[in-house]
Amino acid sequence: MTAPAWNCQADVRFSEHCPGVPTRVQLRAALSYRSPTVGTITIPERWVSDGGSIPRVAWSLIGHPFDDRWLRSALLHDLLCAFHVGTWQEATRLFGEAMQSEGNTGWRRPAMTGAVYLRGPRWRPAESITLAQLEEIVRTREFTWDVNDRRP
Fold first, then answer.
1. 146 torsion bin: left (phi>0), alpha (psi -120 to 50), beta (else)
2. What gap in Å lies between CA 72 and CA 99, rounded to an integer?
3. Which one, of 100, 107, 25, lies nearest residue 69 by Cα?
4. Among 56, 60, 62, which residue's Cα sits nearest to residue 21?
């Protein structure tokens, strides 16, 4: 039997600009994803994310950005992109892998992974950091609601 990919459910709190419409989410406790290809990646306590980058017009078809079916995968992808961990292609692949581990095996996983591949953040390999460097950042840095300037 293999170990579960995620160590727990995402324990989050929401921030709203308009009553009843969350715009950001912050982790209340660290969250770890165990990738069969790269090992364990820890998303730190107090990490802030906008959830899945799903255009509002697509919410009725795809779902809400904070849907439990992909929130952890979106948190992981946001972390990898914010710090340029590995290549953008690897971050996209890990997003799809994490979505599959959450049980997203139907049309949404390839649709969302494809959208991330086509429209997601990109960076040059020279701008990348390693998972070990990310672990050091996560271990030594405190995260707040300020989503700007996440780079070390």
1. beta
2. 8
3. 100
4. 56
Residue 21, helix vs strand vs coil: strand
Q: For residue 132, what pLDDT band results from cuts at 50, 70 and 90?
A: very high
- Segment 24-75, tens digit of pLDDT: 888 888 899 999 999 999 999 888 888 888 888 888 888 888 888 889 999 9
Beta-carbon neighbour count of residue 128 at 10 Å? 17
Dihedral sign for Cα 18, 68, 100, 2, please.
positive
How many Cβ atoms are within 10 Å of 43's Cβ, its own excluded?
A: 21
Q: What is the pLDDT of residue 33?
A: 93
pLDDT tens digit string along 89-128?
A: 999 999 999 999 888 888 989 999 999 999 999 999 999 9
- pLDDT recorded at residue 98: 93
Neighbours of 23 (CB within 10 A): 13
Vertex 134, ends 109 and 147: CA angle to 5°?
A: 70
pTM of the predicted protein model = 0.84
**DSSP at 6:** B
